[in-house]
Amino acid sequence: MTEPGGGFAWRPALVATGWTIAFLAGGLLLTGLLLYLASLAWGPAALAADAAASLALQGFLELAAFAFMTWLVGRRALKLSWEELGWRRPGGAAGFGRGLGFAALLAIAALLLAVPLAKAHWLRDEGGVPAYLQSALAVVALLAPAALAEELMFRGLPQVLLGRTLGMGVAIVALSAIFGVFHALNPDVTALALGNIALAGVLLALAFLLPGGLWTAWGVHLGWNATIAALDAPVSGLPFRIPLIDYDPGSPAWVGGGAFGPEGGVIATAVLLVGCYFLGRQARKDGLA
Q1: Is residue 56 one of the residues assigned to a domain?
Q2: Which of the four pLDDT bands, split at 50, 70 and 90, describes residue 276?
Q3: Which CA distances in Å does 257 have to 110, 184, 244?
Q4: Is residue 104 part of a domain?
Q5: Cα separation values, 40 from 28, 36, 47, 129, 236, Å
């Protein structure tokens, strides 16, 4: 954005940055407050004893917090429409489905390429097909609210605000870097893993520009995470126990990802770059980037 005289419009950029910081800080503080109240209601020991329930609760509360902040800051304070915020763009359901399938293909490619390049493999585990399907569906339900919450947090209001004032390219790079740092405390994290998560942030930001907006980005996010988890690999360092199959990432870890999951290796780097190329090309073709 430029001023009438041709210079950069610093004031709108600073205002947008301030609102973005307030949005993120408010959402995180509200999430923390809701988690604290939940721990008082159920007891810290009960939540700590059930990791899946704790993760699901955190995802739902984070989603509630950032949905509220989107309404408070985006709708009430800044008077942005739901369409501008990416909630009511045309093709939401179709975008979600396309995003889900596209990301699932990327995730499968990353895992399959690790077989010849990192000697990754699957072993037979306990349980049958019914148990596998039940577990896979449970994982999808577990990951869905957290994925949508992160889309609201990084690709919703912040991308809209910063994209309008700093330029969409700068906004995408800045928010993707923050998205990577946001995962810095995940188990078994490495510098390469954080770089790949930031790159995944670019992929998701490009998806947000496509028809369907927020719902397309959510489909890509959920498709990537759920496919990796359903194939028994860790998702951003978080392991999921899936019956029937047992995934071994092979070695070296910097190739296949190791204990962090595919996002910890250079194979994922290459796959995510390919994904960014295709989504970026589609966004330019549609005149959206």
Answers
A1: no
A2: very high
A3: 10, 15, 22
A4: yes
A5: 18, 6, 10, 39, 29
Contact, 212 vs 91, CB < 8 A? yes
For residues 274 and 203, what is the distance between their CA atoms, to the nearest angstrom?
10
b/e map 27-46, b = 16+ CB within 10 Å: bbebbeebbeebbeeeeeee
Q: Compute the residue count for the chain.
A: 289
Q: Write out pLDDT tens, residues 206-256.
A: 999 999 999 999 999 999 999 999 999 999 999 988 999 999 999 999 999
Q: State the residue range of the domain holding 151.
A: 88-285
| pLDDT tens, position by position, 27-80 | 999 999 999 998 888 777 666 666 777 888 899 999 999 999 999 999 999 999
Question: Cα separation of 191 and 2, whole Å?
Answer: 36
Q: What whole-number distance in Å separates Cα of residue 215 and Cα of residue 207?
A: 9
Q: Is residue 101 part of a domain?
A: yes
Question: Domain for residue 211, yes or no?
Answer: yes
Report the number of distinct structural domains present in the chain: 1
